[in-house]
Automatic annotation (TrEMBL):
Transmembrane segments: 24-43
Pfam family, any one: LytR_C
Protein name as it appears in the record: LytR C-terminal domain-containing protein
Superkingdom of the source species: Bacteria
Provenance organism: Streptomyces vinaceusdrappus
Stored InterPro entries: LytR/CpsA/Psr_C (IPR027381)
Gene3D superfamilies: 3.30.70.2390
Residue ranges occupied by any LytR/CpsA/Psr regulator C-terminal domain in the UniProt entry: 83-174
Keyword Membrane tagged: yes
Taxonomic classification: Bacteria, Bacillati, Actinomycetota, Actinomycetes, Kitasatosporales
Swiss-Prot/TrEMBL keywords: Membrane, Transmembrane, Transmembrane helix
């Protein structure tokens, strides 16, 4: 270089070559690319595992149908006392119980049929408060209504029995019919509709 400026001495400023900068840039880009690939691969692995769980959950949900409301069975309305005919039999050694009990049942609205001593097969053989007998169809009807008047009595149905009448056989433990208020409350509860499940649940 000519002119008035001359370089003297054996030292001079040295500049970094442009090629080294280019290499650094290439290395930086490569590192970023590698990190990006690793991150993407990690995300893919996570998706694979979590995706399998979701698929299983979806499959389970498909296999498990939504709970469906079950049709409520038609409630059987019990008859009123005036629709129930009761035969009253005394199976004890105490006289007059059958007639006295029949009169009380009549006051409470029941229809009274036969009033007599108990047949030999039951006479002096009932240790409890009493025994209620009726046809099979009366189990949830007239027999249940009569049962509200004497809660401690045993109930039995006879499959071969015909007709709609029911029997009240007074036993040795008989102390009287239920109090009118208690009997009325039992009748009200019997006539109340029973709750039914709104939906049918299924565990999956």
């Amino acid at each position: 270089m000519g002119g008035q400026y001359k370089i003297t001495g054996d030292r001079y400023p040295r500049m970094r070559p442009a090629r080294r900068r280019g290499r650094l840039a290439v290395v930086a880009v490569a590192c970023v690319t590698v990190l990006g690939v690793l991150g993407w691969g990690t995300l893919q692995l996570i998706d694979v595992f979590t995706g399998g769980d979701k698929a299983t959950a979806v499959g389970a949900a498909a296999d498990c149908p939504t709970a469906r409301a079950s049709a409520a069975p038609a409630a059987v309305k019990p008859p009123k006392p005036a629709q129930v005919t009761v035969n009253v039999f005394n199976a004890t050694t105490r006289g007059g119980l059958a007639q006295k009990t029949a009169d009380e049942l009549k006051k409470r609205g029941f229809r009274v049929g036969e009033v007599s001593n108990a047949p030999k097969e039951y006479d002096k053989k009932i240790k409890g408060a009493g025994l209620l007998l009726g046809p099979a169809a009366s189990a949830k009807g007239s027999l249940a209504v009569l049962g509200t008047q004497l809660p401690g009595a045993e109930r039995r149905t006879e499959a071969a029995r015909e007709g709609a009448e029911v029997d009240l056989l007074i036993g040795d433990g008989f102390k009287g019919l239920a109090k009118p208020a208690d009997a009325d409350a039992a009748l009200t509860a019997l006539a109340a509709p029973q709750p039914t499940p709104a939906a049918e649940k299924k565990s999956c």
